[in-house]
Structures are given as C-alpha cells and as structure tokens.
Design goal:
By secondary structure, the chain is mainly beta. The chain has strands spanning 3-7, 10-13, 18-25, 34-39, 46-51, 58-60, 68-73, 78-83, 92-99, 111-114, 118-123. The N and C termini lie far apart (40 Å).
C-alpha cells in the first residue's frame, strides 16, 4: 500500500550537484515527517537529513550540513534532497523513508517505510 518511488540518482563529478526526488503514495503525506539515509558499500546505513511538517524544521548530518538541502512539496507528495558541492565520499545508495511518529529520526529504527534506494556516484 505504501510506496516510495525515488529518482534522480546518477553519476556526477566532484563539486557537481544532483537533486533526488521521492514520491510517496498510500499514506497521508502531509502528516508524516520524512528522512533521507545513505549506505556506502560495506558500511551501515547512515542518517543524512530529516524534514518535519514545516520546511523550517530540518536536521542534517554534520557530514552534509551546508551542502545538502531537504525539502518537501505536500501538493506533490514528494520529498527532495538537493545535493550541492558533492564529494567522492558522498557516493552511496540513497534511501528516502517515512519516520515513525514520536521516534528518533536520526536512527534507522525511527522509520517505518523505505524506498528502493537510488545510486549516487561522485567521481574525483
């Protein structure tokens, strides 16, 4: 019933930009807070960003702060991750996710639904 469809991943040179999109269906999007995680080969999934019900309620991992911007468009049931000044260490599979109500949104366990993931590769 709940589906998260991601798009926008790809190959980009260091210093470049990408915008990831995640279209949600099967839920009341406006009532949910959303997050982005990423997983590099051989590593655990790590928190990237979270957005609350309002656009001014955002949280970022220190590693991406100042470079990435999370946003949402409730009319389109879509959450975005604008990634600027990309670095090779940003290379990972990126996942969008729906946060559990009243849960810790910086932890993977704080989310109840996940997208399929989209590959982001940053070349040096």
């Amino acid at each position: 019933q709940v589906q998260l469809v991601e798009s926008g991943g790809g190959l980009v040179q260091a210093g470049g930009s990408l915008r990831l999109s995640c279209a949600a269906s099967g839920l009341t999007f406006r009532s949910k807070t959303m997050g982005w995680f990423r997983q590099a080969p051989g590593k655990q999934r790590e928190f990237v960003a979270h957005i609350g019900w309002s656009a001014d309620s955002t949280t970022y991992a220190d590693s991406v702060k100042g470079r990435f911007t999370i946003s949402r468009d409730n009319a389109k049931n879509t959450v975005y991750l604008q990634m600027d000044s990309l670095k090779p260490e940003d290379t990972a599979v990126y996942y969008c996710a729906v946060a559990r109500r009243y849960s810790d949104y910086i932890r993977e366990q704080g989310y109840e639904y996940w997208g399929q993931g989209t590959q982001v590769t940053v070349s040096s």
